[in-house]
Design brief:
By secondary structure, this protein is α/β, with parallel strands linked by helices. Helices cover 45% and strands 9% of the residues. It contains 10 helices and 4 strands; from the N terminus they run βαβαβααβαααααα. The chain has a single domain, classed as 3-Layer(aba) Sandwich (Rossmann fold), CATH 3.40.50. A 4-stranded parallel sheet has the order 2-1-3-4.
Amino acid sequence: MSDLRIALVAEGPTDYEIIKAALRVILKPRTFIMTQLQPEATRPTMGTGWCGVRKWCHDTRLRCTEMDGTDYTLAGFDLLIIHLDLDVAGMSYADCSPEVELMARDWQWEGLPCPEQPCPPISATSDQIDAVLRSWLGGHLPMHKTLYCLPAQSSGTWLAAAILPSAHALLVRVECDTSVEKGLEILPKKERIKKKVKEYQKHSPRITAQWEQVKQVCTQAERFEQIVLATVELGEST
């Protein structure tokens, strides 16, 4: 069986490491090649972070409209994953720029910040960000097999759940706490993990090894696994 060809749109390069580590266990024994489309070093005008994901989605929406609903730039891939951290629910379009704030009104995007929801559970906030992403894409799916990866509150939370004991203070109400990822950077020196690609590359194998533990702590990890397996299964049966 040939490698599954996966395209990734994410907030940043550390998210690539986290998602790749998760997919290694979710898709096992299936092998895959994942290409990060956003952020992409040769296209700095797209920006990074959630604002860069927003721009990629909007530009893709325009391409889909021009091409009768299909984005042929994705023709070489079997699966598209669009990542957004759930802490985006507390952001504002004005955080990107005043122009983006105006665009949000003109294009009728779902509002940011989202109305605050009880947490736990994180599911209501996840549904809100799912709707935000869909509004950026204008209801279009850039390719048939498209899914969202929405860690709570950030992808670094999955890393924390993999490396820390379940009783650790950072894991209390872990999916509701926006400071977990930053908390990894201020652990005692021997345990500290800075948000740098090399650091995440070094520690991400723990996510693969401890994926069952991650899912027990992070409901969004479990949800991601279910969506990936359902989408890949659908693709193989059609």
